[in-house]
Amino acid sequence: MTKLVYTPEELLASHPFAEYHMAAGHKLHGGFDPQGSYVPPRSLHRIPAIAAWQSEVERKGWKLIDCSADLLKMGNYPSPEQQWFLLENGLELTMWNSLTIAGVIEGRGALLASFPAPDFQSIIVEDISAMCIGHLNKGLLVAHGWDEGGNPQTDIGAHNKMWFAARDALFGAGAYGRAEVPESITRPESGRLMPQIPPEHEQYLLLLMNLTMIEVRAEATFRFNETVVKNPDAFKSNRKGANLAADLIDRIRMDENIHVASLRVMLSEFRELTIKTVDGGTVRGKDMFDRLWAPMIAYHTGEAFEFSRNQTRESLKRQILALPGGDNLFAKFDSLEHRALAAE
User: Fold this and answer.
1) C-alpha 69: how far from chain center
2) Does 3 fall in a domain?
3) What is the DSSP string of 235-294?
4) Which of 8, 41, 110, 220 is deepest in the core (most CB within 10 A)?
């Protein structure tokens, strides 16, 4: 019989690593199996558990929501071609900053470990004890938070330090200063969007939906950085560091794939369940979820991209115009974006 109920200890358990994870002077989570392949942290039971819960969703004939990278309408700004141009013209700081920002934003995810979800069983008619959504406070949130920002009881770095390690592998530790980091990358909300349920449950569902799309958007970041550092014409004097950076980025992706899988399953479950409303009635989860999910996708793949692009472009413009021949350089820089878009 398929195991569907797990303890927190099981969902937080890691494999017995043959070698621990060290890179660019950073002690990091996860490790390596006897063949030298990277193994994500806390995945001994978490990966098979998520697979089992997804199989149950499919067995019941429920729809799994789309959380694939196919949702992404845009790539990354700047494009790889633009980033190579910046590096060629001595503006390494731009990539240093982007990798630093990625690490800082990832680190904020540690809050998930100390921000328990409300009791969803209290608003759901069906028994959720053997479902993914029933395990939010049974290890899934803690594992996710520790993956992003680290377990505060240890000195082992998580995704935050893995991005810093990739940065340091490329440029050297302390090569540049601090970066200006956005306050938030979630969709701003105003007013109640799901008044049928208590506000604390609405708040957490919106958090999970935003978090899902942030994880989907991360794929564009992975692709961009891997493309940049794998170019043999980039970082010619430091190909060893560039190769390490590419490996670190792929390891982060492997960890994040676990998050996307679990978020996809729990939101798909909620969508198919019967929800108790505050007025004593019931409603199908999809009647609340579906009208919010499409705008959430549209925001993260459209409006949020454009906002970030415009802010980044203005910052890069200032830096490029400060160089000798800045006007011509910026015109060239801009043309590279249009060339990349035309090729898509």
Assistant:
1) 12
2) no
3) SGGGHHHHHHHHHHHHHHHHHHHHHHHHHHHHHHHHHHSEEE-TTS-EEEHHHHHHHHHH
4) 41
In a domain, 190, yes or no: yes
- Structural domain includes residue 127: yes
Question: How many domains does one find in the chain?
Answer: 1
Whole domain around residue 160: which residue ranges? 8-343
Residue 104, CA distances (Å) to 75, 147, 259, 338 in order = 21, 13, 18, 30
User: Using one digit for the tens of pLDDT, what is the confidence trace for 1-29?
Assistant: 899 999 999 999 999 999 999 999 999 99
Cβ 224 vs Cβ 241: under 8 Å: no
Question: In 3-state terms, what secondary structure has residue 36?
Answer: coil
Q: What local confidence, expressed as pLDDT, does residue 191 receive?
A: 81
- Residue 124 is given by DSSP the state B
Q: Residue 83, Cα to own-chain centre: how many angstroms?
A: 21
Instruction: Please tell me the distance from the alpha carbon of residue 15 to that of residue 29, in angstroms, as a whole number.
Output: 12
Kind and range of the H or E run holding 12: none
Q: d(Cα 107, Cα 26) in Å, to the nearest integer?
A: 15
pLDDT in tens, 168-188: 999 999 888 776 666 655 566
